[in-house]
Amino acid sequence: MSVEIKIMDRIAKVEIINQQGNLLEIQVDDTIYKVDIMHTADGTFSIIQNGHSYNIELVPGDHPKRYTAHTLYNMYDLEVIDAESRYMLSRGSGAMTTKGNTISSPMPGKVIKITVSEGDEIKQGNTAIIISAMKMESEYKSPKDGIVKRIHINEGDTIDENQVLIEVE
């Protein structure tokens, strides 16, 4: 499983490829690193990579997935962006996941109700579909005024993250 980590203005895709004790093979974007990571008694992380030693202290932030990383000379704000975080961000901002003329799911879930049919006229902001994910129901709204061109799912279907659900033209 991979996550995205936002460091300042950069978002890096991070995945643990292999782990044997403290020895990890980690892919960051397209680069693979072999590191020895140890969580020390004082709460810092000791990292050895290519013969170089790094110490990083992670201080929890105002949210369970936000941290401040302290290194010897620098401080960085970090945020772990996983499927749950993307979902919560879309709910918190009131914005649904839309790409142009489509409504997509920011995370896996189940289709509870489809409120439109193909060929229906729909106004921007009108509810088109209700999804249940993480024990919460969310209404997905039309990104624009138009006609429902295609519905890719049915009520009761299980959907994947970033799956296109409905197209509006």
SSE map:
Layout lengths: L1 E6 L2 E11 L2 E6 L2 E9 L4 E6 L2 E9 L5 E5 L4 E7 L1 H11 L4 E2 L2 E3 L4 E6 L6 E2 L4 E7 L2 E6 L4 E6 L6 E2 L4 E5 L1
Antiparallel strand pairs: 1-2, 1-8, 2-3, 3-4, 4-5, 5-6, 6-7, 7-8, 9-10, 10-17, 11-13, 11-16, 12-15, 13-14, 15-17
Tell me about this structure.
By secondary structure, the chain is mostly beta strands. It has two domains: 2-81, Glycoprotein, Type 4 Pilin; 96-168, Beta Barrel (OB fold (Dihydrolipoamide Acetyltransferase, E2P)). It is 7% helix and 58% strand. It has one helix and 17 strands. The strands form three sheets. It has an eight-stranded antiparallel barrel with strand order 1-2-3-4-5-6-7-8. A hairpin with a 2-residue loop joins β2 and β3 (23-28). The longest helix is centred in the middle third of the chain and has 11 residues, at 83-93. The model is unreliable at 92-98 (pLDDT under 50).
Summarize the structure.
7% of the residues lie in helices and 58% in strands.
Mean pLDDT: 85
Structural class given helices, strands, pairing?
mainly beta
CATH architecture of the largest domain: 2-Layer Sandwich
Number of E strands: 17
* Low-confidence runs of at least 5 consecutive residues: 92-98
Largest sheet: 8 strands, antiparallel, barrel
Count helical runs: 1
Reading the helices and strands in chain order gives: EEEEEEEEHEEEEEEEEE
CATH topological fold name of the largest domain: Glycoprotein, Type 4 Pilin
Helicity level: under 10%
**What is the 3D shape?**
elongated
- The amount of beta strand, in percent, is over 45%
- How many angstroms does the end-to-end distance come to? 35 Å
The domain tally reads 2
Strand order in space, largest sheet? 1-2-3-4-5-6-7-8
